[in-house]
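Sync notes, pocket subgroup
Present: LS, DG
LS reminded everyone that the earlier model was apo-only. Rerun requested with S-adenosylmethionine included. Inputs:
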Amino acid sequence: MPFDSTHPRDGLNDPEIADTLSRLHRDARRDRWVFARALPSIALGFLRGRSVFESAEPFLSDAYIPVSPELGRLMYQVARAAKARNIVEFGSSFGISAIYLAAAARENGGRFTGTEMLPHKFRIAESNLVSAGLKRWADIREGDALESLEPLDGPVDFVFLDGWKEMYIPILHLLEPKLADGAIIFADNIHSFRKTLKPFVDYVCDPRNSYETTVVPIGSGVSISTWREQSKEKPDCRY
Ligand SMILES: C[S@@+](CC[C@H](N)C(=O)[O-])C[C@H]1O[C@@H](n2cnc3c(N)ncnc32)[C@H](O)[C@@H]1O
């Protein structure tokens, strides 16, 4: 679908966006009951050295597990400032982060592409984009992102990784040939999945892999990387 740069720039204060986000962040508080049901498994996981999220994973099909409003706003602002037009998300759930990123795509005259493998979450995420008035600038692709993102056109300017953690590296590898020079990659849960995500953090911090990366202590830890395909400088990593 062609890019569309005709929309006025009213940002996250657009009433449809603000109302939808506030309803969804409120609904997402119900996640605590999902985690309560998962408690025995979390306790057992703790004894085996697993994180809360890792142990609760089998219970999460009805959970939002969304970004915080702070992380959503940060990604929105960074995507806006970077003028990112082709914005891609791995793991959209019910569409909260999708709304922040689709709003940035709309204002940058671009498009947002989300992904969600669970059919009921996919349908609700799509309808939440409609409620936010963003559907014209955004699509969620149903199914495994490794397949649904394969035909995606580049160059990709901004990526948010938030699906299951062992897939961050395969998804990044899939997207690398499509990344624009200077593309920005946000990845969530770096601290809450410290062990599972260590290979990912090592990868984006390895000077041979063309990223500059910082891990920041927002929520459960977020890595922010910049892809420098042509860079002659040694990329840097701080975490
Ligand atoms: C942490 S939630 C995403 C939350 C969302 N980014 C937000 O802030 O609202 C992770 C989601 O990724 C989805 N997911 C995990 N692996 C996936 C895959 N391989 N392809 C597509 N979706 C996937 C899960 O079903 C789940 O809904």
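DG: The chain has two domains: 25-62, 65-231.
LS: Residues 64-67, 91-93, 96-97, 115-118, 121, 144-146, 162-164, 167 surround S-adenosylmethionine (CB under 6 Å).
Action: DG to write up.
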